[in-house]
Amino acid sequence: MFSRGEKTAIQDVLNSDFHTSEQLSLFRNRSFVIAQEGMLVHEPRLVIKWLEGVNKVIHQRLARFCASTSEVLFSPSLECRHAIQNQLKAAKNSIDICVFTITDNEITSVIEERFNAGIIVRIISDNDKASDRGSDVDYLQSIGVDVKVDHTRFHMHHKFAIFDQRVVLTGSYNWTRSAAHSNQENILISDDQKIVSRYMSEFEKLWAKF
Known about the structure:
By secondary structure, the chain is α/β, with parallel strands linked by helices.
């Protein structure tokens, strides 16, 4: 019914990892329009078979959004630090970090490893904390990591990170040794795309602002 090039283009769209459920719903609606137009020039049986195949793939993609997962961790314990390190190590393309401060060398070493491995790393932090003794923000910037800090009299007090634009890690947990060993802190990790999208939008807004 369709040319090989058209089929390949459709499959590439469906195989994309960056769809929202809303985009897939729009694509599904568009597939019905294409099918209706196809009925005028192609064998209806073939059109229906194509439409069934397209919608089967769309439903499989939509199931990903319905099956989002979340995890909650608390400190003092090493679980939160390990969770951050694991997410950093799992990232394949990009790591966007927006945190008040980074002083935990165990976390910094993994950020450096991922940056050296070719992962795109961006960091937003607080200007006052970046100059504190023990802060690793200036060091990460010195090795080439893209870093931005706010230059206001207020604090950039966020503590979140986004991995591959697919998973967000957030909570009260500062990326410090005291958070791991002493403080009462929490972390939430989620791949819910609506939540990830909101955090990604906030990151991009701050990145442009600073």
